[in-house]
Write a structure and sequence with these properties.
The structure holds two protein chains of two kinds.
Chain A (H helix, E strand, L loop, with lengths): L13 H34 L4 H16 L2 H15 L6 H26 L3 H9 L4 H31 L11 H11 L7 H30 L2
Helix pairs in contact in A: 1-4, 1-6, 1-7, 2-4, 3-4, 4-6, 5-6, 6-8, 7-8
Chain B lengths: L2 E12 L2 E12 L3 E5 L6 H8 L7 E6 L2 E2 L7 H5 L2 E4 L11 H11 L5 H14 L15 H13 L5 E5 L7 H16 L3 E5 L3 H7 L2 E6 L2 E6 L2 H6 L4 H8 L5
Parallel strand pairs in B: 3-8, 3-9, 6-7, 7-8
Antiparallel strand pairs in B: 1-2, 1-4, 4-5, 9-10
Helix pairs in contact in B: 3-4, 3-5, 5-6
Classes of the chains: A mainly alpha, B alpha/beta.
Chain lengths: ~220, ~250
């Protein structure tokens, strides 16, 4: 069998660079995820409010995010705004902005769904036991909302981590970009590197996302 | 005996749809009142008005002399005097049986955990569910859930307990165990208002029968046996006929 080309990673600091690239991916997703969760909670509660105007705006926001490919959004924010609005955003901030813009909409929709899915009778039976509004929310509604939300939001988080591979298109040197650089630099000495290096990148994504998705499955089972 | 619950000129409407018109009722301590009537006659809404889950548009409801007013601040205090068990199983799914039962006594009434647990276990033992105390609601049958819901209401030491068609969603074989629990509760002197479609049970447990139709009390009698043989009104006669098979 031909060489898999993994040996390239053990030349010089290649493996370290790849891990640094991975860290860039994780950093961008981590910041975006935290911001998305915080903003998503607010947007989600807003989505449950019965106000036509508010509903229309949020619906438009959610649909925009869903329909538009993330890469197009990235290009608009990074390349488009610089000249038109004169914003000088770094590639990293553009990426975090786009991922948060996306994550907030999706997260908001998950929060909305989780709150709506709690039957009215849960509110009523808590009230019938003499609980006031705050006690009802703290002991009955929020714990159930969070339980429904965690597995769903973890799936969103893994999707966001995977999608960070797009940010190399606006010049961020994340794990996939480093992999390309390593492959190109060693094109002559290890022509098979494309297979081995991308395989390792695949495994790195797997190592990051798999525990998160296992956690979701575990929580889903435990709280079913 | 003293008057515990008093309803005068209760009027309730949803928009232009009048669901309860000029209802008057008074219930004494220890009395078991069974409310029957066709679906949609307003009997469930009536119960929901009694503990302020529904706003009323006219009339006065008092429990122990205190007025029940939906949306008022002290409604939570009043609700502690009025237990309620619903038709659909409404246990809190994220809490075990025991946690479901002691939640309100410890958080709302600020009783100590030890005290609440001790009494909860006694009551669970009475309904034959003490071995299920650490189960989650999803692990219980419908009948078991309803018995837990009854215990949960009882632990608040309510003055009166409202039962809203508590067996309507149960499998036939589960109905009996729940009704047995309610009959023994009635025998122990609890004040109960029961909405039900189980006529045999109504006959066995009621001190007084109230027949509702179209948002109105059509017939009211303490002569329970007589009511089921020979009701005074034509509407009650027609209603009871729908339960008879020849």
């Amino acid at each position: 069998m031909a060489s898999l080309g993994i040996d390239v990673l053990f030349k010089g600091t290649n493996l370290l660079r790849l891990l640094q690239g991975l860290w860039v991916s994780i950093e961008i997703s981590l910041i975006s995820v935290v911001l998305s969760i915080l903003l998503g909670l607010i947007v989600g509660v807003l989505m449950t409010i019965n106000n036509k105007f508010l509903k229309a705006i949020l619906k438009l926001y959610l649909e925009t995010v869903r329909i538009m490919p993330q890469m197009v959004l990235l290009f608009i924010v990074y390349f488009g705004t610089t000249r038109v609005f004169g914003w000088d955003m770094s590639a990293e901030s553009s990426a975090i902005f786009v991922f948060t813009f996306w994550g907030t909409a999706e997260m908001g929709d998950l929060v909305r769904g989780s709150i709506k899915s709690i039957p009215t009778i849960q509110f009523e039976s808590a009230m019938a036991l003499g609980m006031d509004k705050i006690q009802t929310y703290i002991y009955i509604i929020l714990p159930q909302t969070v339980r429904r939300l965690i597995p769903l939001s973890i799936n969103l988080i893994t999707r966001m981590i995977k999608t960070t591979s797009l940010v190399m298109m606006i010049g961020i040197v994340e794990v996939l970009k480093v992999a390309q650089q390593i492959i190109e630099a060693n094109r002559n000495s290890s022509p098979n590197a494309a297979f081995g290096v991308f395989l390792v990148v695949f495994l790195l994504y797997f190592i990051v996302c798999w525990p998160i998705s296992r956690l979701a499955t575990y929580l889903e089972k435990r709280w079913a | 005996m003293s008057e515990l619950l008093k309803v005068t000129h209760l009027h309730k409407e949803f928009g232009s749809n009048v669901v309860l018109k000029d209802i008057n009722l008074s219930v004494k301590k220890g009395e078991v009142v069974v409310i029957i009537g066709p679906s949609g006659c307003g009997k469930s809404t009536f119960l929901r008005c009694l503990n302020g889950l529904e706003e009323i548009q006219g009339g006065v409801i008092t429990v122990d002399g205190l007025p029940v007013e939906a949306g008022k601040r002290d409604i939570t205090k009043l609700r502690q005097k009025i237990g309620m068990v619903f038709q659909s199983y409404e246990l809190f799914p994220h809490k075990t049986v025991l946690e479901n039962i002691i939640l309100a006594p410890t958080k709302v009434q600020k009783r100590t955990r030890e005290d609440a647990v001790k009494e909860a276990l006694e009551l669970l033992d009475k309904v034959g569910l003490v071995d299920k105390k650490d189960y989650y609601p999803r692990q219980l049958s419908g009948g078991q859930k309803q018995r837990v819901a009854i215990v949960r209401a009882l632990l608040m030491h309510p003055e009166v307990i409202l039962f809203d068609e508590v067996t309507a969603a149960l499998d036939p074989e589960m109905v009996h165990e729940v009704l047995e629990t309610m009959i023994s509760l009635a025998k122990s002197g609890s004040t109960m208002l029961i909405v039900t479609h189980e006529m045999g049970f109504a006959k066995a447990v009621a001190d007084r029968i109230i027949f509702f139709d179209k948002g109105d009390i059509v017939e009211e009698t303490a002569d329970v046996k007589e009511f089921f043989i020979q009701p005074k009104t034509e509407r009650a006669r027609k209603f009871l006929k729908t339960f008879a098979y020849e």
